[in-house]
UniProtKB/TrEMBL annotation:
Purpose: Part of the ABC transporter FtsEX involved in cellular division. Important for assembly or stability of the septal ring.
Organism: Sphingomonas mollis
InterPro entries named among the record's database cross-references: AAA+_ATPase (IPR003593), ABC_transporter-like_ATP-bd (IPR003439), ABC_transporter-like_CS (IPR017871), ABC_transpr_LolD-like (IPR015854), Cell_div_FtsE (IPR005286), MacB-like_ATP-bd (IPR017911), P-loop_NTPase (IPR027417)
Assembly information from the UniProt record: Homodimer. Forms a membrane-associated complex with FtsX.
One GO MF term: ATP binding
Alphabetical UniProt keywords: ATP-binding, Cell cycle, Cell division, Cell membrane, Membrane, Nucleotide-binding, Transport
Membrane topology: Peripheral membrane protein
Location of the protein in the cell: Cell inner membrane; Cell membrane
Primary residence: membrane
Protein name: Cell division ATP-binding protein FtsE
Length: 253
């Protein structure tokens, strides 16, 4: 007997949030009379493989908090988060590091290791994954060239400009070819030309199947990735409550 060939398309949804809420400083079981205000409320959306998303919204809207949920630094107070098809909320803590390794993060404050050179900072995820040294050296050299820092490989973070540190942080987040790249204001410290270049590079990651989520205040950045989808937060809520994502608006001239 032959096995029938399935005609069901392979799902490309890699992240799904359903009615997610977040309060800081309270356990989910705490009585509501003791609860701090909800920072994020009724957040529902899904992210597709290889797609680029901008997350926008005014300061304090909850962008960083939403990213923290996405890269599993924070558990929600309510709702469901599915990552790579698995429920990330009830997942045992022991499984979290394996999932986190599939997510590259560019932090707003870079978080470079101060006593390591630029090259050693970029190499960290590959060393943790146990790759052979020759492979690590080649990947690190390629990544530093990718962000225009080939000549600063041996520099320590304190001797780099803010924009150079930001580019090292980007190289470190991308070097292990993550399934998801999450970046919080990744161009806040670079000049407009470098911002354009970095957005072009981020935009090209979709061809490798990487899903990119960039949080930014910078409306001009939105025009730099024409194929990007947009998620807009305001006061802790996604503006479109159904989570349907739209193309970025035109920035007024
Ligand atoms: N660890 C925390 N404990 C308590 N409240 C927090 C914590 N982190 C953030 N908040 C609050 O959550 C709200 C959303 O903050 P968040 O940093 O997510 O916003 P944001 O949109 O990223 O802002 P910005 O663009 O200024 O970085 C703010 O009111 C902030 O004060």
């Amino acid at each position: 007997m032959t096995t029938p060939i399935s005609t069901t398309p392979i799902s490309t949804t890699i992240v799904q949030f359903e009615n997610v809420g977040l309060r800081y400083g309270t356990e989910p079981q705490a009585p509501s009379s003791y609860a701090s205000p909800e920072i994020l409320s009724d957040i529902s959306f899904s992210l597709q493989r290889g797609t680029f998303y901008f997350l926008t919204g005014p300061s304090g809207a909850g962008k960083t908090s939403l990213l923290r949920l996405l890269y599993l630094a924070q558990r929600p107070s309510r709702g469901i988060i599915r990552l790579f098809g698995e429920d990330a909320v009830v997942m045992p803590r022991t499984r979290l590091p394996g999932f986190r390794r599939r997510i590259g993060v560019v932090f707003q404050d870079f978080r470079l290791v101060p006593h390591l050179s630029a090259a050693d900072n970029v190499a960290l995820p590959l060393r943790i994954a146990g790759l052979p040294t020759a492979d690590i050296d080649q990947s690190v050299a390629e990544m530093l060239a990718w962000v225009g820092l080939a000549d600063r490989a041996h520099a320590r973070p304190a001797t780099l400009s803010g924009g150079e540190q930001q580019r090292v942080a980007i190289a470190r987040a991308v070097v292990s070819r993550p399934d998801i790249l999450v970046a919080d204001e990744p161009t806040g410290n670079v000049d407009p030309d470098m911002a354009d270049r970095l957005m072009h590079l981020f935009g090209s990651l979709g061809n490798l199947g990487t899903t990119v989520v960039v949080a930014t205040h910078d409306l001009h950045l939105l025009t730099r990735v024409p194929h990007a989808q947009m998620m807009q937060l305001d006061g802790g809520r996604l503006l479109d409550p159904t989570g349907v994502l739209r193309n970025p608006p035109q920035v007024p001239a």
